[in-house]
Design brief:
The structure holds 2 protein chains of 2 kinds.
Chain A (H helix, E strand, L loop, with lengths): L4 E3 L2 E4 L5 E6 L6 E8 L3 E9 L2 E5 L6 E5 L5 E5 L8 E8 L9 E2 L3 E5 L1
Parallel strand pairs in A: 2-11
Antiparallel strand pairs in A: 1-3, 3-8, 4-5, 4-9, 5-6, 7-8, 9-10, 9-11
Chain B lengths: L2 E5 L2 E5 L4 E8 L3 E9 L6 E6 L5 E4 L2 E5 L3 E6 L8 E9 L4 E3 L3 E6 L1
Parallel strand pairs in B: 2-11
Antiparallel strand pairs in B: 1-3, 3-8, 4-5, 4-9, 6-7, 7-8, 9-10, 9-11
Classes of the chains: A mainly beta, B mainly beta.
Amino acid sequence: DSGVTQTPKHLITATGQRVTLRCSPRSGDLSVYWYQQSLDQGLQFLIQYYNGEERAKGNILERFSAQQFPDLHSELNLSSLELGDSALYFCASSGEAAGGGGYTFGSGTRLTVV
Amino acid sequence: EDQVTQSPEALRLQEGESSSLNCSYTVSGLRGLFWYRQDPGKGPEFLFTLYSAGEEKEKERLKATLTKKESFLHITAPKPEDSATYLCAVQAYDYKLSFGAGTTVTVRA
């Protein structure tokens, strides 16, 4: 157990639907990062939050949004889902804004859009 | 745009056969270079962070080195449990972490 908790582990939904993925960071970590991993794209950085504030943005689609709450857990909202959104979504956390100590990843949420 | 290229894509080794993985990168300003190990269906597991050229880090049978343009992950006398995908990532000064596609290592007993 890495200390980063992601729920749900698996999600199957239809095109056009909206889903919410949840992440609880490791105790004491203030930064949360979201990544998408698909077979043909590898790990793609989506967005980072640090202590509730958006810190960095990657290739996140406009249909996707995220937030980090006062208790530091984070949610990634995916809407108007398309088949191509099927992927593993990972959350990671670190104890500092720069993540110099290395990110700790959760075990991921596998999203299947049918 | 920051780019990370890993080679080879796949590596099949006999137990005890040492080898090296390459990670070449271009980044606007390097804050750090990371190595991760990922097992199938699991999240990446942090191995090393390297910050400047010439730096080396070791952990059991793994040794990571860094130059201004590339990093190497040396696997010495690998065992079957070292089989995994090894990911390299660079962090730029804007905090973004960019990953390479990974090298899948298979070690046969």
